[in-house]
Design brief:
Distance between the termini: 18 Å
CATH superfamily: Winged helix-like DNA-binding domain superfamily/Winged helix DNA-binding domain
CATH class: Mainly Alpha
Number of domains: 1
Shape: globular
CATH architecture: Orthogonal Bundle
Number of helices: 4
Helix content: 55-70%
Length: 82
């Protein structure tokens, strides 16, 4: 299940390029594609782990710096191609 969730996060972020996706929207999109759904805390753990692996990263929203907007990195794209 862990690999499936990571793959879905990467796929979701790749599909929305060149835009970054707000965390709440990413949570909704991931849960739309997987079962059982994950909660916000579980998603946060995946995002932190995947960011530490340099697969994804975030920028802060220009209008609301409390909102993280996530995007896939080159390393994340390369992992999807394997």
């Amino acid at each position: 299940m862990t690999a499936e969730i990571k793959r879905q996060i990467l796929l979701t972020l790749k599909q929305c390029q060149p835009f970054a996706l707000p965390e709440k929207t990413l949570h909704y999109q991931v849960n739309f594609a997987i079962r059982p759904p994950i909660n916000e805390d579980e998603l946060a753990e995946f995002l932190i782990s995947m960011r530490s692996q340099k697969l994804i990263d975030f920028i802060l929203d220009d209008l609301d710096e409390s909102v993280r907007k996530w995007h896939i990195t080159e390393a994340g794209k390369a992992l999807l191609q394997k």
